[in-house]
């Protein structure tokens, strides 16, 4: 869990199962790797963006990127 604590209150881009892509700020997590992401935007096909607010993501396999100073670093 130390891994996620480094990214608290940072903007993340998450690719979830089913091809869903959301961007938001990591607000919390638990020992089961469930994530709470706030101020979320769902990135749809064709560049469409939907504001969806807070997302509580049950642990799923995901591709996880951390966004910092316009650079994307792949973490997993």
From TrEMBL:
- Could you list this entry's UniProt keywords, alphabetically sorted: mRNA processing, mRNA splicing, Nucleus, Ribonucleoprotein, RNA-binding, Spliceosome
The GO terms describing molecular function are:
RNA binding
Biological process (GO) annotations held by this record are: spliceosomal snRNP assembly
Pfam families noted in UniProt: LSM
Positions of the Sm domain: 1-76
- Can you list the GO cellular component terms from the UniProt entry? catalytic step 2 spliceosome; P granule; precatalytic spliceosome; SMN-Sm protein complex; spliceosomal tri-snRNP complex; U1 snRNP; U12-type spliceosomal complex; U2 snRNP
Q: Which InterPro entries match?
A: Lsm7/SmG-like, LSM_dom_sf, Sm, Sm_dom_euk/arc, Sm_G
Compartment(s) of residence: Nucleus
Q: Which family does it belong to?
A: Belongs to the snRNP Sm proteins family.
Q: Which PANTHER family match?
A: SMALL NUCLEAR RIBONUCLEOPROTEIN, SMALL NUCLEAR RIBONUCLEOPROTEIN G
Q: What does this protein do?
A: Plays a role in pre-mRNA splicing.
Q: What protein is this chain from?
A: Small nuclear ribonucleoprotein G
């Amino acid at each position: 869990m130390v891994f996620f604590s480094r990214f608290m209150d940072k903007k993340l881009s998450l690719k979830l199962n089913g091809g869903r892509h959301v961007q938001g700020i990591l607000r919390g997590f638990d020992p089961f790797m469930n994530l709470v992401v706030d101020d979320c935007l769902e990135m749809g096909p064709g560049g469409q963006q939907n504001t969806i607010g807070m997302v509580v993501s049950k642990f799923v396999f995901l591709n996880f990127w951390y966004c910092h100073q316009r650079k994307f670093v792949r973490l997993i």
